[in-house]
Amino acid sequence: MPKAPRTKLSQHRAALLGAVLLLAATSASAACPNPALPVLEHAGAVYLQSKPGYLVLCDGQTTREHPLQNRDASQSTRYINGHWHFSNRTSFVVLISAINEVWELSYNPRTPDIPSGKIHDFQYREGAFIPGYLNPQRGRLTHPAPTQAQAELTEPVARLRQPAPLLSS
């Protein structure tokens, strides 16, 4: 038996119901910070949280979940090894020794975009870029981090906390 064609009113109701359901799902998932996850660090309204296999950043409007895997997704882990807050750089730094990487996640909305992939020309932005806000800028560790990574990183972390020298012209 063929279905009766939808009228414009029933199509409008279906679209309205879909929009209401989408809004309910968005507002339910937009809780920042997520009460089910531990808060590792926070700066004002920006929260750094962790769940197995993911690093979660949220600012009340945007929530980003970054899988804990290296740049080419050939290695992954479930946990991070250390995290620090650098207020003068407006960023969080996360050590992930299982994939030999250090991530810097900026919570400054004016952070420059991060190059991802091959870049032909930075000046003319020829290449692939992602927004710098709440996304990781990755650094490779030359040696695997020891278990007591926080003790080993004390001196480099202290250098990061110092403001960068101004360039003179």
Automatic annotation (TrEMBL):
Domain of life where this protein originates: Bacteria
Keywords, alphabetical: Signal
Signal sequence residues: 1-30
Protein name (database record): Uncharacterized protein
Species for this entry: Atopomonas hussainii
